[in-house]
Amino acid sequence: MIRLLWRDITLAFRSGGGFGLGLGFFLILVTLVPFGVGPEGDMLSAIAPGILWVGALLACLLSLDRIFALDFEDGSLDLLTTAPIPLEGVVAVKALAHWITTGLPLVIAAPALGFLLHLESTAYRWMIVTLLIGTPALSFIGSFGAALTVGLKRGGLLMSLLVLPLYIPTLIFGAEVVRRGAGGFLVGTPLAMQAGITLGAVALLPFASAAAIRVALR
Amino acid sequence: MAINWNAFWEWANPRKFMWWTDRALPVIAILAAVIFVIGLVWGFFLTPDDYRQGATVKIFYIHVPSAMMAINIWAMMLVASLIWIVRRHHVSALAAKSAAAIGMTMTLIALITGAVWGKPMWGTYWEWDPRLTSFLILLLFYIGYMALWEAIEDPDTAADLTSALCLVGSVFALLSRYAVLFWNQGLHQGASLSLDAEENVADVYWYPALVAIAGFVLLFVALVLLRTRTEIRARRLHALEMRERVKNA
């Protein structure tokens, strides 16, 4: 399993664009927002938590089809189903690799981009904490969407249609934590809810994704 | 009394399904039409205007039943998907597929009638209120579900994958419902038809509303049977065409 993890991570690093793409997209999105809403600092700092979260969401979405599609095309997914580790494990590892190559860089980049958007100084801590807790859920939910559309020729757009509604609870609680943190309110409840969603997604969704992949490979 | 469950599942055999729906469908359809008309005429013309809302209260007879159906149809799709996963009855999967479009329409009706009512009453067509937002999210789930059905060619694969989406989607739809409650305070009134609540809608509106709800349920049953029959016929036609093609080749 660890070898598979390494394989996926090195592939993401080496196979041109997969790794930096999400990060670059995140940066561009954050750069575009002030053009759209105007450069006033107050306005930007009010919407910064939401923009950062939505940006992280979309950046995650961008690289989802790489989780299974390439392996499906060159046949390694067929080999992986016959591997000694269960397919559920394969799926979980691939989602984890996706998180390490996409979610984690976003978490690290978020404070710098928050700086660009005049994020309240009290909110930085919560921005990092909530992204750290929330982005694994994005990867695992996304891997389910990717598994559903893996056999399709042009599944990309359909996948966003399927995955984005599933991201709504994570987004709501994530942005709520940052907004409350910025205002100096208690953040315990939304943080706990978000952690619950992440843990539930990590624990249960690999089974659903593996089932979907078995159907697609049938 | 022991129920013969095998006999129960027999009714889902496509041929038997076509046989009994052929006889039941006209009855259900006529019953739906009659009850629908009774409920709406009673509601629209034979109830007094509300003392604060005036005549706008009458949209209640379309708004509330369609909103209830929007949620219940998703629940029905969930059950049908589970039956497909467990017992692999093709009719079940096709019924879930047929129900989705009706459910989406009901969601749209609820949203639109709500907006029409909201303008004079709340002064706005749309507000990011938890209930309204939840319905918008439900609409997105319906659209995604239907899009997935359309995208996959092989019918069994499509049934499997949409069932998986329906199961996972149900969990996330519920999560969204409560997350949205957390996110914004509501403008929408609370439940007014609960059996256990102290404050409910007055009886004079309640009875025609019940009739209207029954009409919507029957309408849904009639439509879903009709659409499932169409799906079964379409699949038979497809099988026939394939057979012809093989014969000619």
Automatic annotation (TrEMBL), chain A:
One record GO biological process: cytochrome c biosynthetic process
GO molecular function: heme transmembrane transporter activity
InterPro entries: Cyt_c_biogenesis_CcmB (IPR003544), Cyt_c_CcmB_bac (IPR026031)
Residue intervals passing through the bilayer: 12-37, 43-64, 96-117, 123-150, 157-175, 195-217
Coiled-coil boundaries: none
Top-rank taxon: Bacteria
Keywords: Cell inner membrane, Cell membrane, Cytochrome c-type biogenesis, Membrane, Transmembrane, Transmembrane helix, Transport
Compartments where found: Cell inner membrane
Membrane topology: Multi-pass membrane protein
UniProt main location, coarse: membrane
Pfam families (alphabetical): CcmB
PANTHER family per UniProt: CYTOCHROME C BIOGENESIS B-RELATED, HEME EXPORTER PROTEIN B
Family designation: Belongs to the CcmB/CycW/HelB family.
Protein name (Swiss-Prot/TrEMBL): Heme exporter protein B
Organism the protein comes from: Celeribacter halophilus
Automatic annotation (TrEMBL), chain B:
GO molecular function: heme binding; heme transmembrane transporter activity
Start and end residues of each Cytochrome c assembly protein domain: 20-188
Transmembrane segments: 24-47, 59-86, 98-117, 132-152, 164-184, 204-226
Gene Ontology CC: plasma membrane
Presence of keyword RNA-binding: no
Keywords for the protein's UniProt record, in alphabetical order: Cell inner membrane, Cell membrane, Cytochrome c-type biogenesis, Membrane, Transmembrane, Transmembrane helix, Transport
Localisation per UniProt entry: Cell inner membrane; Membrane
Any one GO BP annotation for this protein: cytochrome complex assembly
Membrane topology, from the record: Multi-pass membrane protein
Domain of life according to the entry: Bacteria
Physiological role: Required for the export of heme to the periplasm for the biogenesis of c-type cytochromes.
Family: Belongs to the CcmC/CycZ/HelC family.
Name of the protein in its database record: Heme exporter protein C
Species of provenance: Celeribacter halophilus
Gene of this entry: ccmC
